[in-house]
Amino acid sequence: MKDVEDGRALEALLEHLRGSRGFDFTGYKRSSLARRVSKRLQMLNLQGYGDYLEYLETRPGEFTNLFNTILINVSSFFRDSAAWEYLRAEILPELLAAKAEAEPIRVWSAGCAGGQEAYSLAMTLAEVLGADAFCQRVKIYATDIDEDAVTQARQGSYSAQDLEPVPPDLRDRYFERAAARHVFRKELRQAIIFGNLNLVQDAPISRLDLLVCRNTLMYFNLETQRQVLARFHFALNDAGFLFLGRAEMLLMHTSVFTPVNLKHRVFVKTAKIDLRDRLMILAQTGDHEAGNRVSREVRLRELAVDGIPVAQVVVDTSDAIVLANEQARVRFGLSAADVGRPFREVELCYRPVELRPLIEQAVAERRPVGMANVERPGPNAQARYYDVQVAPLLDDGGPALGVAITFTDVSRYAQLHEELERSNAELETAYEELQSTNEELQTTNEELQSTVEELETTNEELQSSNEEMETMNEELQSTNQELQTTNDQLHGRTDELNRANVFLESIVASMQSGVVVLDANLAVQIWNRKAEDLWGLRADEVRGQNFLNLDIGLPVEQLRTPLRECVAGNSGPHELRLEARNRRGKAFRCPVVCFPLAAPDNQPHGVILLMEEGG
Question: Which residue segments constitute the domains of the chain, with CATH numbers given?
Answer without folding.
Answer: 2-70 (1.10.155.10), 81-274 (3.40.50.150), 305-416 (3.30.450.20), 511-611 (3.30.450.20)
